[in-house]
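Following the same procedure, the fold was encoded as C-alpha cells, giving this record:
***
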Amino acid sequence: MKTLPFFSGFLTLLFLTASLTADEYRTFTNSAGKSIEAKVEKVENGQATITLKSGQQFTIPANSLSAADQEYLATWKPASATPAALPTDGVTAAAINEVIGKGLFGESTLWDSNPEEVAGRLQWRRESKTEISESYRSYPKSDYRFLGARPFSAALYGEEEKVTGISIVFANKGDSYQTAGSGEDHFIKGKPVPGGMEGVKMLMEHDAETISESLTALLGEPERQKFGEGEARVTAERWDWAGHAFLLSNVEGEYVSLAVQTIEFADARGNTKRVPDSVVRERVRGFVETRENGDVVISNIPMVDQGPKGYCVPATAERCMRFLGISADMYLLAMAGETQAGGGTSVDRLLSNIGSDIKRKGRSFDIETGELKMRDVQRSIDDGIPIIWAMFSTKEFNEIANERKKVRSDAGSWDSYKANVAAAAEDPGLVKDTSTSHVVIIMGYNEETNEIAFSDSWGERYLERWITLPEAEQISQNRFYIIDL
C-alpha cells in the first residue's frame, strides 16, 4: 500500500449512489478539482485506503476530499469478502508445495495471505516494513532449493498486509562466475562445471531446465510471452495456477529468474499504469517529518539489504524507485546495469542504465556534480525526494557516524551534542580512500547543526545515521543521482 497523508482532496464527484458497494469504482475529487477513479478498501482513523484501476493502493486523509466524498466515506461499509481458497482437487496447494520443496502456499491465495506468515514458511527474514510496504529477503545457503534449483537471492513484497509479488534469482553471472561447485554440485549430468562464463551458462541452462520441467510436469506446457519494459523486457515461460502466474526468465549469459505475480500483472506483461505525478508528489511530501530538535527527514523509505554482494548501487536504486512508486528488484537492476562477471558494478553505468528505464516510466533522472551544499539538500528533502550520493565509506567515517547515532539516541543534553558536533566540524580530518567507494541515500538534514542524515543499504540498523556537512564533503565523490517527478 502507498500512503498519501496528503491527497488534499481528490476528484469531483460525478454521482453518489446509495447502492454503491465496496467492490465498485467511483470518482473522487480533491480541493483543487482533480479527479481519479478508485474503490474504497478501508476507512479507519480518518484515513481511507483506495485502489486505483491500475491495482495500486494509496491511503489518504478523508478530510482531504470533497464534502460529498467525505459524506460517502462516513457511511461506507466494507463488503463481506472471503479470501480466495486454493483448489482442493486437481492441482492442490500441497502438490505445488511438494514440487517447490517449500510451504509457499497455505489455505488462501498469496494475494489474500499475510506476507510475514508466507515469509516464515519460506524461512526468509524481514528486510523492511514501512507505512508504504514491507519486504522479506533471503540469500539462501548453498543447500537451499526452490523448484529443485539453488536461489542466490529471494525477495517477497507486500502491501496492506497482503503479498504482492515474489522475485527469485537463480544462477547468474554475478554469483556463478568462477564457480565449479562443491561435492555433488561440482557435476551437472555427469559433467564437471568449469569456471568462467562457460560454467555460468552451464549452471543457468541447468537451473532453467530444472525449474521448467518441475512446473511443466505439474501444470502442463507453458506459454511464452514478453514481459517487462524497455531494456528489462525479456521472454518468459508462463504457467498459471489458481490466480497466480509463474514467470520463468532465462536471459542468455545474464541470469535465470522466477517471478510469482497476479494473473492481471502477467496479462499486462509487467507494464503498470503510471500513477499521476501529483499523487506521488503529495505522498512523498507527506512523509517529510520535522522533529523538535530541528531534524528534517524523509520517513518510509524502504530498506533493501544488499547482503553479501557489493550491490550497494542497485540496492540503493531499488529503495528510491520503490519509494517513488516504481517497482524494482535489486538483483535484476544489477544485471540491467551490466554487472561484471563476478559481481562488480560501475556506479555511473548502472545508474545511467537504470535512469533510462526510469525515464521510460515517466519519471525524471538527473545526475549532478559538485560540492555538497545544504541549500541543495534542503530543497530536495523538503520536496520528499531522496538523493543518491556517491561517497567513500571509510573506516574513520563510519566510526564517527556510528558514534553520532549512539549519542543522538541517548537522552543527554542536545546543547552539548551541538557543541561537540560544531567542534568536530572545525577540523574533520577525514581522508578519501578510493577502495571504499559506496553509495547511500541522503534522506534528511538539520540546518542548525549543519548535519545531513544518510541511509546505507545494509539492513534496518543502518536506516538513519548523521554526519556534518564539512565531514561529508571530505569523503564525497561529488556525484549525486536524483529520481524526480
Q: What stands out?
A: The first strand starts at residue 2 and ends at 3. The CA atoms of residues 148 and 210 lie 6 Å apart. Residues 196-219 form the longest helix (24 residues). The chain has a mean pLDDT of 84.
